[in-house]
Amino acid sequence: MTVHAVGSPLPQAHYHRCPQCDILFRLPVLKRNQSAWCPRCSAKIRDGRDWSLSRLGSMAIAMMLLMPFAWMEPLLRLHLLGVRIDANVLQGIWQMTDQGDPLTAAMVLFCAIGAPALLVISIAYLWLGNVLGMNLRPVLLMLERLKEWVMLDIYLVGIGVASIKVQDYAFLQPGVGLIAFVSLTLLSILTLIHMNVEELWERFYPERPALRPDPNLQVCTGCHYTGHRDARGRCRRCHTPLRHRRPQSLQKSWAALIASMMFLLPANLLRSRLSTLTARARTIRSSPGFCRWPTATSPLPAWCLSPVFWCRLPKLLCCLRCWSAYNSGANRGCAPVSCCCG
């Protein structure tokens, strides 16, 4: 008998650790478009939505063609007191810097321009790097974290809120750039939804799964691979250091939570900006109706309907999570479990 070719082994069930609760469980073989969740904390382990690299490249090309029009063409045309004002993304960022808010301008610049541009460049690098045999690990690690910083949809919501506030004393007209910006936002959302970074890891850097249960198996928080360390204590696939828990993670979460709670009252009570129109000054705060009580027109308390309350609710839940993690570690007489506040 002559063997002409040897194919890859058939996929089989293997053991996997949850990156959220660290439980070791047996992950069955998944079919296409099937997802898997952790049996203990219900965190998503495998996502069935996956686009091919060629389709992601097509989306990246379309986004690259829309970017100049979405950023440089006017989004809105304002007719205020007989003066026409064309507002685009770059002009708005420059005005923030000119008015003394460079930090806010830098955040808008990164989330609305820098992160989408990096997304397109990363997809192009994956396509070219796969052909040329380049190192794709840094780009794959960056893509997992970059998905949280592409905030074109948040900027689009801000445009809608600003339009509602300005339409009382100015005439608004949509510009050419608004169509390009909406299209760019939709394409970026579709790309982020269907871009499965774990499947890209499996495609470019396949590793042998764990077929037997072993308490020494560790999960990598970078590429979510479950296996043993290499000789240097790193993940065998993405080469990031493997640790049983993030160093000082609970302490860092408490520090960030306490700092955010300290700035809660000043952010809602102090003056945020001063807008002057036709020789009339108005002070605008970010907490309108935060302390009002029920009236005949609004039977519910205003803080129940205020977005400020719902924005602070995750901080309270995060505080409960940190406290429960601290108590669980103290009751077991060991180091507290890892905790991360988003």
UniProtKB/TrEMBL annotation:
Gene Ontology cellular component terms for the protein in this record: plasma membrane
InterPro entries in the cross-refs: Multihaem_cyt_sf, PqiA-like, PqiA-like_proteobact, PqiA-PqiB_transport
Taxonomic path: Bacteria, Pseudomonadati, Pseudomonadota, Gammaproteobacteria, Enterobacterales
Protein name: PqiA family integral membrane protein
Recorded name of the encoding gene: yebS_1
Membrane topology: Multi-pass membrane protein
Keywords linked to the UniProt accession: Cell inner membrane, Cell membrane, Membrane, Transmembrane, Transmembrane helix
GO biological process: anaerobic respiration
Membrane spanning residue stretches: 53-71, 103-128, 149-166, 172-193, 253-270
Subcellular location per the Swiss-Prot or TrEMBL entry: Cell inner membrane
SUPFAM superfamilies: Multiheme cytochromes
Record bears the keyword Hydrolase: no
